[in-house]
Amino acid sequence: MEFSYWPGMASIRIIGGGLAGSCLAWQLRWRGAAVVLEDDHRDGAASRVAAGLVNPVTGKNYQPSWRIGGFLPEAVAFYRKVEEATASRLWHPLPVVRLVSECEWDKVAGKLERPEVAAWVEQVDEAVAGWRAAVVLKGGGRLDTRRFCEVTGEAFGRMDGPGDSRDVVRCGGAFDLLDGRLGEHRCAKGEILTLAIPGQDESRILVGGGGWLVPIGGGRFKAGATYQWDQLDGRPTPAGRARVEEILQSLGVGDFTLLAHEAGIRPIIRRSQPLIGRIGDDWIFNGLGSKGSLYAPGAARRMAEAIVDGREIEAELDLGRWLER
Ligand SMILES: Cc1cc2nc3c(=O)[nH]c(=O)nc-3n(C[C@H](O)[C@H](O)[C@H](O)COP(=O)(O)OP(=O)(O)OC[C@H]3O[C@@H](n4cnc5c(N)ncnc54)[C@H](O)[C@@H]3O)c2cc1C
Known about the structure:
Blueprint: E1 11-15, H1 19-29, E2 34-38, H2 46-49, E3 53-54, E4 57-58, E5 63-64, H3 68-86, E6 91-93, E7 96-100, H4 102-112, H5 115-118, E8 121-125, E9 133-137, E10 141-143, H6 145-159, E11 165-170, E12 188-196, E13 205-208, E14 211-217, E15 220-224, H7 238-250, E16 257-266, E17 275-279, E18 282-286, H8 292-309, H9 319-324
Parallel strand pairs: 1-2, 1-11, 7-13, 11-18
Antiparallel strand pairs: 3-10, 4-5, 6-10, 7-9, 8-9, 12-15, 12-16, 13-14, 14-15, 17-18
Helix pairs in contact: 1-6, 1-8, 3-8
Bound molecules: flavin-adenine dinucleotide.
Flavin-adenine dinucleotide is lined by residues 15-21, 38-42, 45-47, 49-53, 171-175, 190, 192, 224-225, 264, 266-267, 286, 288-294.
């Protein structure tokens, strides 16, 4: 186990054990810091319900995710290292199949020629029933977010002692944003279904019809997700379920058994671009939005370097600068 700190040295207290707090805990430990990781398991915690999908090219504009060239390889290496440390399987690389409708095709086809998009494209299949085409993307996959947070909680509960907390880092996700203490937010509730689907292909992630279907093993899938900007709580609703069922229908899924219907709140400040910094006495790591699996490891590393080594936070991720703008 490669970490070294003096038992009894001042520890860093992380409040919130979702993707942000869990990634930070590892990054701090690997830099020799002692860590206390706290989580009170609130309803609506995003990392507990997320599908963990990493889709390299996303959105209506069909663009590679922000700074993916740096964040994605760092995230995959990070999850592999945690897998080794915890003897668990967390990162599942899978092709992402983007189903494109007739009316989306001209826009998507134009993007496919651009080098920054073409770099992620494995193939384009123009013979797909019910769709104009299927674009198969490489480099994506799924993080088992819930398991990642659980194994991290176990690892830190077991190995690090409390000591005196020198620094406090708030990683409370949407719960730290809803009261407006960090300025305006765009937090969005999301509802998601877990399903058993007999005979459904488990070798790829399907994206289309405004949602996705992500295989999670053993004939089970996560399907989602809704975006709602009111009623920001962790309660699943009949309307949310109906919306995800519409997505399933457009993805061609007919027969399924519902295993779970859950909801969480995405912590959104500036789209899905995380922000880190020190505000008053506390460090803050937030704003992972809809893309925590992709951005949490790299943002956590920068935060750990700032806390342990006093390294300056780069302007683009600096929460202080964002709040002053
Ligand atoms: C339905 C849905 C689907 C999603 N799908 C994907 C996806 O496919 N891919 C992807 O990358 N992202 C996805 N996301 C987004 C992803 O879940 C988030 O980016 C990420 O989980 C945010 O992590 P976080 O640690 O900032 O917040 P959270 O996961 O919400 O964690 C915050 C934690 O802090 C704890 N906490 C808060 N206050 C306190 C306190 N005072 N004391 C102790 N503990 C406290 C809470 O209990 C919670 O566990 C999805 C989100 C939702 C809702």
